[in-house]
Amino acid sequence: PARLYMRKDDSDNLPVIATVNLSALPLN
Predict the structure, then answer these.
(1) 1 touches 24 (CB < 8 A)
(2) Which DSSP string corresponds to 1-28?
(3) C-alpha to C-alpha distance for 28 and 19, rounded to whole angstroms
(4) For residues 25 and 18, what is the distance between their CA atoms, to the nearest angstrom?
(5) What contacts 20, CB < 8 A, 6 or more positions away?
(6) Handedness of CA 17, 19, 25, 28 (dihedral sign)
(7) Mind listing the pLDDT tens digit for each residue in 1-28?
(8) What pLDDT is recorded for position 18?
(9) Whole-number pLDDT of residue 16
(10) Distance between CA 24 and CA 8 in Å, rounded?
């Protein structure tokens, strides 16, 4: 299953990470 990684250094990229994980959900 896709996971949302919330590292401090990735806070600026969180929306992108969320989009990537959500788009990958059906594939997992």
Answers:
(1) no
(2) -------GGGGGGHHHHHHHHHHHGGG-
(3) 15
(4) 11
(5) 2
(6) negative
(7) 566 655 555 556 556 666 666 665 665 5
(8) 62
(9) 64
(10) 22
